[in-house]
Write a structure and sequence with these properties.
Strand order of the largest sheet: 1-2-3-4-5-6-7-8
Bound molecules: 1,3-dihydroxyacetonephosphate
Strand content: 5-15%
Order of helices and strands: EHEHEHEHHEHHHEHHEHEH
Number of strands: 8
Structural class: alpha/beta
Distance between the termini: 16 Å
Number of helices: 12
Largest sheet: 8 strands, parallel, barrel
Length: 251
């Protein structure tokens, strides 16, 4: 089965609305490569302008978080109803920064995955180990616990639409990327977990990205691996030239 490669930029807490639109106008066309899915995950404030700018292009727009309830007394939160109303396509769920700084547990991540499907948003679910867990040989176990929790109660048809991003936390924003071979080994393992939770056809369909210090200079190495279907990119997704090269390098 051939999976469509997917490059997603995670802008984190960067770019005003005007900066976002300027960026978009600078990448459209060149960051549209046949056979590669290109997604920009922006701060909430920039989403309406980006969705508008993306009309008529193949670039998809994603949020970086969603609350699991549709509405209610949750000051400062944004729901799936609101994101769908904007016509957003994707949402990142369970990024390690949200797990670490905003106390997102595996249970909350799972509730958010359910909320995404309820509102027809495709989830990009992040998993990955901390440095001390890697050094203790616990990488696979950590990914297993996080992956199994995220997929709880998700049916096979939904599961096929999930994008998993394997992001070893020690490689995020540090310039220390996992070797392509190591990342591929963990990603193949995550795929085997999906096969055991569902079946081979679901595991074949699920796209699994690597994330952590991916840049134009190394993206092809990752994309050349058997099980790596794309990249979730932070820092290198913020510059137009670099983002264009990432999408072009995924082919
Ligand atoms: P960097 O690409 O800046 O290492 O960030 C990775 C990441 O966290 C993407 O979600």
């Amino acid at each position: 089965m051939s999976r469509t490669p997917i490059i997603a930029g995670n802008w984190k807490m960067f770019k005003t609305v005007s900066e976002a639109v300027t960026f978009f106008n600078g990448v459209k066309g060149q960051a549209e490569v046949e056979g590669v899915e290109s997604v920009i995950c922006a701060p909430f404030t920039a989403l309406p302008a980006l969705v508008e700018a993306a009309k008529g292009t193949s670039i998809k727009i994603g949020a970086q978080n969603v609350h699991f309830e549709d509405n209610g007394a949750f000051t400062g939160e944004i729901s799936g109803v609101m994101l769908k109303d904007l016509d957003v396509d994707y949402v990142i769920i369970g990024h390690s920064e949200r797990r670490a700084y905003f106390a997102e547990s595996d249970e909350i991540v799972n509730k958010k995955v359910h909320a995404a499907f309820k509102h027809d948003l495709a989830p990009i679910v992040c998993v990955g180990e901390k440095l001390e867990e890697r050094e203790a040989g616990q990488t696979k176990e950590v990914c297993k616990v996080q992956t199994e929790a995220a997929f709880k109660g998700i049916d096979a048809e939904q599961a096929k639409q999930v994008v998993i991003a394997y992001e070893p936390i020690w490689a995020i924003g540090t310039g220390k990327s996992s070797t392509a071979e190591d990342a591929n080994e963990v990603i193949a393992y995550i795929r085997s977990l999906v096969a055991s939770l569902y079946d081979g056809s679901v595991a074949d369909a699920v796209r699994i990205q690597y994330g952590g210090s991916v840049k134009p200079a190394n993206v092809r190495e990752y994309m050349g691996q058997s099980d790596i279907d794309g990249a979730l990119v932070g820092g290198a997704s913020l510059e137009t030239d670099s983002y264009i090269q990432l999408v072009q390098g995924a082919k």
